[in-house]
């Protein structure tokens, strides 16, 4: 394999790992998107391993760097199977960077003004805003096969009897929301 092809594949491969930062820090993963990203991550992992092992001499540092692919694939699988975890550091960083924009949007939504959707609030895409007396829901991503995930702003006590939604505390009045269809 020529040097230019190897370099091109390496750049493309690194670009894919950078792209994965978005789904790995999202509120959840929808089934079709998960399948495509998981399959592409496996393909890039196999190609990258082949590039590392066919280069002489084999560099242990490159083998160590290749471990990013199995780690990314396992993380995608874990995220898909368990929905987003508030302890995920990538999600936490994205949430904290977005919190000022989310706070402002929650104030607007609670003041009976409508928010134009779809839109971006901070670093999260929001396709729907649901306003209830006790909370504001910012629906962001699909989860699983047909469910939705997002963020919930609940300034008071969390309402009891949530049969179709699960919430996990993030910070202050903010929660990760998993809404079952």
Beta-strand residue fraction: 15-25%
* Uncertain regions spanning at least 5 consecutive residues: none
Summed up, the domain count is 2
Helix content: 40-55%
Gyration radius over CA = 20 Å
> How would you spell out the order of helices and strands?
HHHHHHEEEEEEE
Placed side by side, the strands forming the largest sheet appear as 3-4-5-7-6
Structural class: alpha+beta
Biggest sheet character: 5 strands, antiparallel
What is the end-to-end distance?
A: 49 Å
Average pLDDT number = 88
Number of strands: 7
Number of helices: 6
3D shape: elongated
Structure write-up:
This protein is α+β, with helices and mostly antiparallel strands and 181 residues long. The chain folds into 2 domains: 3-82; 89-179, no CATH class. The chain has 6 helices and 7 strands, in the order ααααααβββββββ. The strands form 2 sheets. Strands 3-4-5-7-6 form a 5-stranded antiparallel beta sheet. The radius of gyration is 20 Å and the shape is elongated. The model has no long low-confidence stretch (mean pLDDT 88).
Task: Provide key terms for this protein.
2 domains, 181 residues, five-stranded antiparallel beta sheet, 7 strands, two-stranded antiparallel sheet, 49% helix, alpha+beta
């Amino acid at each position: 394999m020529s040097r230019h092809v190897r370099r091109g594949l390496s750049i493309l491969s690194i670009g894919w790992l950078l792209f994965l930062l978005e789904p790995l820090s999202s509120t959840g993963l929808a089934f079709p998107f998960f399948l495509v990203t998981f399959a592409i991550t496996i393909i890039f992992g196999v190609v990258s391993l082949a590039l590392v092992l066919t280069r002489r001499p084999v560099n242990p540092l490159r083998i160590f760097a290749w471990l990013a692919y199995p780690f990314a694939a396992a993380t995608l699988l874990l995220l898909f199977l368990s929905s987003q975890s508030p302890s995920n550091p990538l999600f936490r960083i994205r949430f904290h960077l977005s919190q000022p924009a989310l706070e402002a949007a929650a104030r607007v939504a609670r003041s009976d003004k409508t928010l134009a959707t779809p839109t971006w609030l901070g670093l999260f895409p929001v396709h729907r805003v649901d306003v209830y007396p006790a909370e504001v829901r910012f629906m962001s991503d699909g989860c699983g096969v047909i469910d939705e995930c997002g963020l919930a702003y609940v300034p008071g006590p969390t309402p009891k009897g949530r049969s179709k939604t699960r919430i996990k505390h993030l910070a202050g009045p903010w929660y990760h929301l998993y809404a079952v269809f």
